């Protein structure tokens, strides 16, 4: 079976040739097998978010190849890239990035409608996901009316709304207090394991990283196996 995600010889330079040139990635390689949950640990500024954005088709590498589900997607046009991202990749950020004017339920329904689901299917799935993370009783509330932990649980549901094969998370519990972070992280790991998702999860927390199948480091612009 082919890798769910494969990055080959990825380089990323910001402001190339200008005084502010930053060479962030210098030949990063990474592959994730189906069902594998991988931690990405890196010092601040090492290029972890840059790598996740490239893996999530939110940004293009300066050079190198990106494959999703065995298909080389490096040179895809914007429309196909957006469609592939919407159906195959779930993204969770450190800050939830939920749409403030919509309810928790609507935040999970909207990406499904954009992906072609019917209202009923989308609502049923959204309610099922909210119940799974224990926030269904808050379905009709807007993000500002929810606690930080609840907001992040809703963001998990949104990331899983279209049943992606790959979940990318950039310090998904980094803005929560340690106790809430542990509980919310537990929910995320349960969800990932239950659904058989492949995941790449960036975290500064070594204890959380140790609970994943494999740990990778980003340092000096390359990806190396962790201990
Ligand atoms: N658009 C940009 N233009 C110029 N430099 C950038 C840009 N985006 C990121 N950088 C620089 O690239 C480097 C890597 O950034 P990135 O956000 O990937 O780091 P990170 O490992 O995720 O850090 P943190 O853990 O602090 O979020 C940093 O030095 C950052 O300043």
Automatic annotation (TrEMBL):
<keyword id="KW-0472">Membrane</keyword>
<dbReference type="GO" id="GO:0098796">
    <property type="term" value="C:membrane protein complex"/>
</dbReference>
<dbReference type="GO" id="GO:0005886">
    <property type="term" value="C:plasma membrane"/>
</dbReference>
<dbReference type="InterPro" id="IPR015854">
    <property type="entry name" value="ABC_transpr_LolD-like"/>
</dbReference>
<keyword id="KW-0067">ATP-binding</keyword>
<comment type="similarity">
    <text>Belongs to the ABC transporter superfamily. Macrolide exporter (TC 3.A.1.122) family.</text>
</comment>
<dbReference type="InterPro" id="IPR017911">
    <property type="entry name" value="MacB-like_ATP-bd"/>
</dbReference>
<dbReference type="GO" id="GO:0005524">
    <property type="term" value="F:ATP binding"/>
</dbReference>
<dbReference type="InterPro" id="IPR003593">
    <property type="entry name" value="AAA+_ATPase"/>
</dbReference>
<dbReference type="InterPro" id="IPR003439">
    <property type="entry name" value="ABC_transporter-like_ATP-bd"/>
</dbReference>
<dbReference type="GO" id="GO:0044874">
    <property type="term" value="P:lipoprotein localization to outer membrane"/>
</dbReference>
<dbReference type="InterPro" id="IPR027417">
    <property type="entry name" value="P-loop_NTPase"/>
</dbReference>
<dbReference type="GO" id="GO:0089705">
    <property type="term" value="P:protein localization to outer membrane"/>
</dbReference>
<feature type="domain" description="ABC transporter">
    <location>
        <begin position="5"/>
        <end position="227"/>
    </location>
</feature>
<protein>
    <submittedName>
        <fullName>ATP-binding cassette domain-containing protein</fullName>
    </submittedName>
</protein>
<dbReference type="InterPro" id="IPR017871">
    <property type="entry name" value="ABC_transporter-like_CS"/>
</dbReference>
<keyword id="KW-0813">Transport</keyword>
<keyword id="KW-0997">Cell inner membrane</keyword>
<dbReference type="GO" id="GO:0022857">
    <property type="term" value="F:transmembrane transporter activity"/>
</dbReference>
<keyword id="KW-0547">Nucleotide-binding</keyword>
<dbReference type="Pfam" id="PF00005">
    <property type="entry name" value="ABC_tran"/>
</dbReference>
<dbReference type="GO" id="GO:0016887">
    <property type="term" value="F:ATP hydrolysis activity"/>
</dbReference>
<keyword id="KW-1003">Cell membrane</keyword>
């Amino acid at each position: 079976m082919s890798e769910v995600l494969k990055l080959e010889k990825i380089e990323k330079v910001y402001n190339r040739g200008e005084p502010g040139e930053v060479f962030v990635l210098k030949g990063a390689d990474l592959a994730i097998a189906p069902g594998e949950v991988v931690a990405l640990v890196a010092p601040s500024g090492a290029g972890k978010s840059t790598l996740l954005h490239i893996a999530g088709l939110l940004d293009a590498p300066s050079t190198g190849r990106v494959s999703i589900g065995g298909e080389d997607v490096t040179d895809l046009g914007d429309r196909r890239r957006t469609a592939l991202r919407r159906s195959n990749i779930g993204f969770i950020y450190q800050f939830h990035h939920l749409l403030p004017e919509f309810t928790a339920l609507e935040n999970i329904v909207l990406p499904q409608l954009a992906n072609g689901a019917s209202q009923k299917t989308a609502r049923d799935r959204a309610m099922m996901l909210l119940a799974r993370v224990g926030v269904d009783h808050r379905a009709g509330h807007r993000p500002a009316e929810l606690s930080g932990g609840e907001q992040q649980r809703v963001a998990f549901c949104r990331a899983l709304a279209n049943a992606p094969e790959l979940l990318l998370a950039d310090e998904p519990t980094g803005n929560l207090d340690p106790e809430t972070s542990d509980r919310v992280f537990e929910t995320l790991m349960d969800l990932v394991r239950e659904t058989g998702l492949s995941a790449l999860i960036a975290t500064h927390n070594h204890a959380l990283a140790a609970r994943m199948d494999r740990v990778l480091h980003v340092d000096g612009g390359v990806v190396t196996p962790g201990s």
